[in-house]
Write a structure and sequence with these properties.
The protein contains three helices and 38 strands. The protein is mainly beta. The protein folds into three domains: 313 residues, 7 Propeller (Methylamine Dehydrogenase, Chain H); 98 residues, Immunoglobulins (Immunoglobulin-like), CATH 2.60.40.10; 34 residues. The strands form nine sheets. Strands 1, 33, 34, 36, 37 and 38 form a six-stranded antiparallel beta sheet that branches. Strands 25, 26, 27, 28 and 29 form a five-stranded antiparallel beta sheet that branches. A four-stranded antiparallel beta sheet has the order 4-3-2-30, with no helix packed on it.
Length: 496
């Protein structure tokens, strides 16, 4: 649609309802968390959106969505909570060979490291206390030790198809689950040499180490169980059956409980293992296709990423560890969330959180009037009104348009949008006093007014003339042929 053409802009009812719930949700719990110098955030990689959703674990709201590389899967947070590292697995259209580094102070990607080699498909990731990254490569059978400061990379050859990675709290040992070899490789971080290969169950996937570093827990997808490794001897001491196809795994800080995501496409569950008896005490129902699992540092909450069905948006289920029940409201994130690794981190930040709301005016225009996008940015703490700064409109994930915020609002004319469905978000960049935030995605469907068809760019004037000429000639041919046929009939039946 050319600029100036009138369009009928329709906003989906589901989006409007979602915005209504956000605007009118309770602010009491939000306000109580804003003045703390530290807060915990869950960083959820959305594989199909190439983004990371950031959840405030106090309010269970998505405060921002950060674009990263292609098909993100693995996440880890450094010890002081200043950096988040995300592996970008890639797909058939973009070879995976990068990982993204998110600055937790600005919620922006500060760099992508590429030198590990094209097509390595980085998957699992963990970080030592001195901030050496260990990243598994699904296709090269290597684990890469990477210094994110110097960009130095060392390749460590393990067994076939390494996936999950975990590091002991003292940073001395790295445990790597080798899916196609049914083993766990143990790496000495001082030498980056393999010191052991431990036989576990079939198709090991995820791995987690307890707080004291005495036990490593491994999920085995193929044999539907969890192997418990004694890190002092590197031997499997017990194998615990779970429900089906276990993926992510996490241990509570008190080391009493292990939570396992059973990746079932029909009825997703999380198995709760008592570490004293090594038995499953409960299977908690969650949404379909649970994958990643992480526990808050106080051990009160477990966050489980669930991909849902093919057509549903992804979400995060939150489990209360005192009751082992799921809280009623799930957190909606992007499409196909994963989250391999410890994706929850404690961030030192005294800034006040914000809320960005994106709306279209008018929502519906029977006369076909053009609409304008309006962004409103406000602080979630009571007593603070609208903010100033810069907001970025992101159209269909590609076009980025910056606009200044005046008295809390920024506007964008979208009269030039083409006739189709468009996904639009707005991202507030934040400043020294206020955290950035991202609006929920707004779906705008641009249609011709009054049901009329607007010619496409291929309908040129010459094409229209040819079309009209064809119709004219066709009418002449029909008329002439009809006359000839009628004359012949008269001659045949009425001639004397």
């Amino acid at each position: 649609m050319k600029r100036g053409d009138k369009a009928h802009l329709l906003v989906s009812a589901s989006t409007a309802l979602f915005l209504f719930l956000i605007i009118f949700s309770s602010t009491e719990s939000v306000a109580t968390a804003q003045n703390d110098l530290s807060a915990e955030y869950a960083y959820i990689p959305n594989e199909k959106n190439n983004s990371v959703s950031i959840i405030n674990t106090t309010t269970n709201t998505v405060i921002s969505t950060v674009p990263v590389g292609n098909n993100p899967v693995g996440v880890t947070v450094n010890r002081d909570g200043t950096r988040v590292y995300v592996t970008n697995f890639g797909d058939d259209n973009a070879l995976g060979y990068t990982f993204s580094i998110i600055n937790t102070g600005t919620d922006e990607v500060i760099t992508k490291l590429v030198d590990a080699g094209k097509g390595i498909k980085p998957f699992g990731v963990a970080i030592t206390p001195d901030e050496t990254l260990y990243i598994s490569s699904y296709v090269t059978d290597n684990v890469y030790a990477i210094n994110p400061i110097t960009n130095s990379i060392s390749a460590i050859h393990v067994r076939s198809e390494p996936l999950g990675v975990a590091i002991t709290p003292n940073g001395k040992w790295v445990y790597v689950a080798n899916k196609n070899d049914n083993t766990v490789s143990v790496i000495d971080t001082e030498t980056n040499n393999i010191v052991d290969n431990i036989s576990v169950g079939e198709a090991p996937y995820g791995i987690a180490v307890n707080k004291n570093g005495t036990k490593a827990y491994v999920t085995n997808m193929g044999s539907h169980n969890v192997s418990v490794i004694d890190t002092a001897t590197n031997e499997v001491t017990v194998t615990v059956p779970v429900v089906n196809d276990p993926h992510g795994i996490a241990v509570t800080p008190d080391e009493k409980w292990v939570y396992v995501a059973n990746h079932c496409p029909y009825v997703g569950t999380v198995s709760v293992i008592n570490t004293t008896t090594n038995t499953v005490t409960k299977n908690i129902s969650v949404d379909q296709n649970p994958c990643g699992v992480a526990v808050t540092h106080d051990g009160k909450w477990v966050y489980v990423t669930t991909a849902g069905s093919e057509n549903d948006p992804g979400s995060v289920s939150v489990i209360n560890t005192s009751t082992n029940t799921v809280i009623p409201s799930r957190v909606i994130v992007g499409t196909r969330p994963s989250g391999i690794g410890q994706f929850i981190g404690s961030v030192q930040d005294s800034r006040i959180e914000t809320m960005t709301i994106l709306a279209l005016s008018p929502n519906q225009s029977p006369s076909g009037e053009l609409g304008t996008l309006t962004v409103t940015v406000s602080a979630t703490t009571q007593g603070i009104e609208k903010l100033s700064g810069t907001v970025t409109f992101i159209m269909d994930g590609t076009d980025h348009i910056d606009k200044d915020i005046i008295s809390g609002n920024a506007t964008l004319d979208i009269s030039s949008l083409s006739n189709s469905s468009h996904s639009i978000i707005a991202r507030y960049k934040g400043n020294n006093n206020f955290r950035p935030s991202t609006s929920p995605s707004l779906t705008v469907s641009v249609q011709p007014p009054n049901g009329k068809t607007i010619p496409t760019p291929t309908d040129s004037l010459w094409e229209k003339l040819l079309g009209n000429l064809g119709k004219f000639l066709n009418e002449i041919i029909i008329t002439v042929c009809g006359g000839i046929i009628l004359a012949l009939l008269k001659k045949r039946f009425f001639s004397k």
